[in-house]
Target: Helix-turn-helix transcriptional regulator
Amino acid sequence: MNAHSLTVNLEISTSVPEKSEVNNPLFNSPWMALAESLREGVMVISRHVKPIYMNQQAKEISQKLSIGDRHLTILPLEISEICYRLIRYGTNYQQTIVTECLTVEQQTIRIRASWVNLGAADANLPASENQQIVIFLENRNQILQEDLQFEQQKYQLTDREIEIWSLLRQEYSYQDIAEKLHISLNTVKTHVKNIYAKKRWHQLKDSYEE
Model:
């Protein structure tokens, strides 16, 4: 199965619900409009590990995770595994499971999964049967780049400053940054000092304007 056939499967599973799901209140609930506007991927997975809903971001991340997978299914392996972990713990398990994985493009994807009842309950079923698995998918690299672009514009950071700030956001030490960028440690410290000065100035300016 190639990447194109995976895309088709995802579209079928999310855009054309099974007959038993057509009248599911989940598909008419207000939260779905909100889910489509999030920059995180959102999935709703049934207790049988079948996708009920995915927003557009979840589809894109799922395709990234599935590239190079020799055992392609409707759900990427990493997501299926975290669903099966929740199922083994049982629907009374109240904790959120969090894990991270890498795509073939070396992008870090954070996966958070938990049981939830989204108000689509069937009164004829036991309470446990009305639980779904909600998955949140966060492309850490993409979100970081969006945040950096916003901060560069807001705080008027130079290209070098935003380069250093990006590495700081990724938890590089000052010494690591100096070695990576082939600059002195004192130069790194000077840039960091300027970054924080600009941020403080804008924060004070914003507080005066309130």
User: Anything to note?
Assistant: Residues 45 and 51 are 4 Å apart (CA to CA). Helices lie at 3-15, 31-37, 56-66, 77-89, 140-155, 159-169, 174-181, 185-209. Strands lie at 41-45, 51-54, 97-102, 108-116, 132-139.
